[in-house]
Design a protein that fits this description.
single chain, 87 residues, mainly alpha, elongated
Length: 87
């Protein structure tokens, strides 16, 4: 009998989705204003750490969306490109 997806697992997946969206939004801000956006660069770096933590938790639970890994990698790659472009 398959194990049902409990509220804590849904919360982990929801937290991961929120982290992906926050990284994407901060990346967008940094791309629009690369010069003088030191605060945004730091914020994005912290959001990347939170994204990795959220992914670590969510990936250890059943029921992770099939495209979650791809979305995380895409968000990380875009964020790193934005951080590198500002230097």
């Amino acid at each position: 009998m398959p194990r049902s997806i409990g509220p804590e697992i849904r919360a982990a997946a929801r937290h991961l989705g929120d982290a992906i969206n926050q990284v994407a939004a901060a990346t967008s801000v940094l791309r629009r204003e690369p010069a003088g956006a030191t605060g945004e660069a730091r914020r994005l770096a912290l959001l990347l750490l939170r994204l990795r933590e959220a992914y670590a938790v969510a990936s250890g639970e059943p029921g992770l969306a099939p495209d979650a890994t791809e979305r995380v990698l895409k968000a990380e790659r875009a964020a790193r490109q934005a951080l590198v472009a500002r230097h």
